[in-house]
Amino acid sequence: MLANHTEDTGVTLSEKRERICLEVAWELDALARLLPGLVPNIEEAHGAHHAVRGIAGRFLRLAEALMGAVQAPAYLDEHLEQIISLKSPGQG
After folding, report:
1. Is residue 2 part of a domain?
2. Which among 24, 18, 36, 12 has a CA at the least distance from the CA of 63?
3. Which pTM does this prediction carry?
4. What is the DSSP string of 36-70?
5. What pLDDT, in 10s, does the model give residues 36-88?
6. Is residue 3 part of a domain?
7. Which of helix, strand or coil describes residue 12?
8. Residue 64 Cα distances to 33, 47, 89, angstroms
C-alpha cells in the first residue's frame, strides 16, 4: 500500500514495497559491480571496457539514490536530485 501525505514528507511504503525497492537497488548494485569484469581490459576491447565501467558506475549511483530515498531520511532531496541529474554539489 502506498499512502500520499498532504505535507511535504513524501510517501509511506508498506514493508513489502520497501523490501522490493531495496531488493531492486541491491540487484542494481550487484550487477554494476559484476559488469566491468565481463569485458576484458585489453587493447581490442579498450573502449568497450571503459563504456561498461561508465554504465556500471551510473548503476551504482542510481542504486545509491534508490536506497537513500527509501531508507536514509538524512539524504536531502537535493542530493538525490543531483545523483539523478548527474550534477555535482553546487552545480546549478
Report:
1. no
2. 24
3. 0.71
4. HHHS--SGGGHHHHHHHHHHHHHHHHHHHHHHHHH
5. 999 888 888 778 889 999 999 999 999 988 888 888 777 788 888 888 888 77
6. no
7. strand
8. 13, 26, 16
Q: Which domain holds residue 67?
A: 15-85
Backbone angles phi, psi at 8, to 5 degrees: -90, 50
**Pairing of the two strands 11-13 and 2-4:** antiparallel
The one-letter amino acid at 24: V
Average pLDDT of span 6-35: 84
Query: Could you give the number of structural domains in the chain?
Result: 1
Residue 5 domain-assigned (yes or no): no
Evaluate whether residue 30 is within a structural domain. Answer: yes
pLDDT for 4:
45
